[in-house]
Amino acid sequence: ISYSIAEIVELLEKLIGHEKFEIVYTNNYRKEEILDVRADITKVKELLNWVPKHDLASGLKAYLEKMTILT
After folding, report:
1. DSSP label of 21
2. Closest by alpha carbon to 38, among 4, 1, 7?
3. Which pTM value belongs to this model?
4. Category of 41 on φ-ψ map: left (φ > 0), alpha (ψ -120 to 50) or beta
5. How many Å separate Cα 16 from the centre of its chain?
6. What is the pLDDT along the chain (71 residues), one digit of tens a residue?
7. What does the alpha-carbon distance between residue 14 and residue 21 come to, in Å, rounded to a whole number?
């Protein structure tokens, strides 16, 4: 799974109850910048019998709660 910055911002808006953050696109890219990164956790699942405890939404919510941003 891959998430865009816009998708993450939208999720954060929902979690903190903010109406709309302004996203400014500059379209300035650095030379050889990687625009999409995806992690393959298949091997760690197989070797260590590990699975993530959180998806992105619940992980962000847990983080925000821990940082006392959400109460």
Report:
1. -
2. 1
3. 0.67
4. alpha
5. 15
6. 788 888 998 999 999 888 788 888 887 888 888 888 888 999 999 999 999 989 999 999 998 888 876 55
7. 11
Handedness of CA 60, 61, 62, 67 (dihedral sign): positive
Residue 10, token pair as written in the block? 């939208």
3-7: long-range pairs with CB below 8 Å, 24+: 3/56
pLDDT at 69: 67
Determine the Cα–Cα distance for residues 9 and 20; give it in Å rounded to an integer: 9
Residue type, 37: V
Could you identify the residue written with the tokens 């939208």? 10
Q: Are the CB atoms for 54 and 1 separated by under 8 Å? A: no
